[in-house]
Amino acid sequence: MTLTNKALEEIIAKVREIPHVKIIRISTRIPATMPQRVDRDLVDMLRRHHPLYVNTHFNHPKELTTDSSQACNLLADAGIPLGNQMVLLKGVNDNKHVVMNLNRKLLEVRVKPYYIFHAKDVQGANHFRCDLQKGLEIIDFLIGNTSGMAKPYYILNAKGGLGKVPLLRPKFNEIANGRYEITTWENDTVIYADE
What we know:
Elements: H1 5-16, E1 24-27, H2 30-33, H3 40-47, E2 52-56, H4 66-77, E3 82-88, H5 96-108, E4 111-118, H6 132-145, E5 153-158, E6 163-166, E7 172-176, E8 179-183, E9 189-193
């Protein structure tokens, strides 16, 4: 997204020519960090290449300024579905209320909270890494306190290129044939039976 419109369109057009590529996804922090880049010329160019999706990277509700909100709305008005991939960062957004507020504000500008990424092991940035438990606590809180639209997946990028792994707590166990013990978001246990 930092390329000129012409250069970006050339790349998109070449990708679009690949027969098995049906959907193009662009992941970018531009709406958060340089929202003025998202103007009518850019949006009109992107619109010519549907189906095209944009994943943003807002990490804190303070990044949703008037300008960044306008950038998201311009993209959404062009029929471009928007998702958000937040990175869980210690001391920045490792608070359930901060994440809930971010996700609600994202939905107001038509951005679906898509992923919360567990921070990778990156030299020089490990002071931002949280325990997995912190992310699971945030997800549990979101399940019980906000709309289903505001609930992203908590994701870990497995080392060695093994891909994205959703981090989920076991919420049910089969205890007998057709009978299940189910744990709610508040850690209450109920028994469910298929009948």
